[in-house]
Give the backbone structure.
Amino acid sequence: AALDKGLDKDPRMAAALDIRRKDQLAKAYLEDYIKAHPVSDAEVQAMYDKAKAAPMEPEYKARHILVKTEAEAKKIIADLGKKARFEDLAKKLSKDPGSAKNGGALDWTDRRAFVPEFSEALAGLKKGETTKTPVKTQFGYHVIRVDDTRQPTLPPLDAVRGEITKQLQQQRVRDAISAARAGAKIE
């Protein structure tokens, strides 16, 4: 009915249809490119070996108490020196909604997941240590304690084969797009 009414001739509709057509063609081209350039087992193994050879950042299991002022953070550090329990102070005083209810506990994580100031303070602590001075970040002032550290291990190749294959395919797609752009005649 829309064709009978000539709605496909409207300039806006024609432009929208042309964009959709080109999107579908681009998608088909990339799918065909992936089929024509499959990822080999050797490439997957090479990428896994490269990751295995790279140094791995330790992971930290830490707690923190986030407050608005440096004075509040200094008082918390003093109270901890007087044998106050970190977990109790975190539940009572921390402004971090995600960790306060759990006594300030943060999940095991690589320090690069945090803002630089927090990350540097975390890396400077040993197991069981608490920051001696407040750590200022964009969120406020933190008192941080490291409960444990561990060296992560790479999962077996078979467990990550699909993910590695997907990463290699995505790189192939980026390469195909770059090559198409480089060879395109843009008017």
Remarks:
- The longest helix spans residues 157-183.
- The beta strands are 59-67, 109-110, 135-137, 140-150.
- The first strand starts at residue 59 and ends at 67.
